[in-house]
Amino acid sequence: MPGWKPIPRRSFLRGMGTAVSLPLLDGMLTTPGRGHRAAYADGHSAGYREAPLRLAFMYVPNGAHMPDWTPTAEGIDFDLPMILEPLAESRDDVLIVSGLAHDKAKANGDGPGDHARSAATFLTGAQAVKTDGKDIRVGESVDQVAARHLGDATRLRSLEIGCEFGQLSGECDSGYSCAYSNSISWTSPTTPALKEVNPALVFDRLFGSEDPNGLHRSQASRDRDRASVLDFVAEDARSLRSQLGKGDQHKLDEYLESVREVERAIQQPSDGTGVDGHIRRPRGIPEDYAQHVRLMGELMVLAFQTDSTRICTFMVANAGSDKAYPEIDIHMGHHTISHHQDDAEKQAQISRINRYHTDLLGYILRRLKATPDGETTLLDNTMLVYGSGISDGNRHNHDDLPILLAGGGCGAIDGGRHIRVADDTPLTNLYLTMLQQAGVPVDQFGDSTGILDMLRAG
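Above: the chain's sequence. Below: its structure in token form.
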């Protein structure tokens, strides 16, 4: 088509203190009529791919009640156990991996502190130095290794989010610094990445201008006038829309509506009341935990959809969290119950908490699956690890961890299966496999001993 020029992949709708990234549109194709092969500069030799690979890591604390987590059969002919039943709709996109372990989360001579070690080691595969002072040290986490190699291709190198506040100083677990319990992402062996738990601040990071003064004016104006970020980019959006075909116009409209829906959810005051009768940006996190998790999940989806980042870590709760769940009629703390001492009632409660968490995971997976990404979906082009660094919370063991891998990984994963690897296979073998699939030039990560060759069937 003479004179045709593609829209740059990293395009924004701009307004006062606002920069709204765009999703992948047909108008971003390198040449018209070539399907959805979008250009992206991330070092892959092919130069083009239907869509970039995203890496996500979700951590849950205190292990799982493994009899209700582990399918009894391997391969494709298995029934989802009680904890994983909420993933039924996403079954074909989930690979359950049994037998993985984290040796460096074990004491290895350092005594108690398994919860802190479980989080510190979860994405690093390294032994945490036992200290509650400033001399913390563990290892660079897998997400940050990926960000170091791939992060320059996106506006944000990585995104770290969570749903539970936690300090990074002082002691939180048997002589271990709180930095270990409250972080899974480490930019260096001595520096934890700060996670954000306030959805409004994550939203501003995704859609705010890089100019802090402009961002502040935008926030103040939105608070005063109950405005949307979309109000500030409306003129830019109209201009772009006039250049798009009908298919892309529809995609743009759907995307902007999804941004607005997330914004509406964020704008609900955390205490359930307004200020002077007006809706204000929230002063804190939602009181409803499920709403909080879903909202942070929606923000992760938007971050991936707009290619604002391709790497995200998500702490559903901190290591050793003693959060109660009255919404599912569990009033005792999670960590307290996890020391069940084979009490059947407590084990049943642990299973219900585990199932509650996987129900929220199921929501996020469905949102990823419902979000177009070229000719496929975000879930098809994502590798999402979900699990814990502890197996049974009572035993504090770190072998046969509750781990699943969701998404298609741009064709690298055949889901709908339960596989079992050799006992004590390092979890870092999975991470090494993911890094190599993402094009990161590494031959080892943490305590890895090789790659997993079972992600594809046959």
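The chain has a mean pLDDT of 87.
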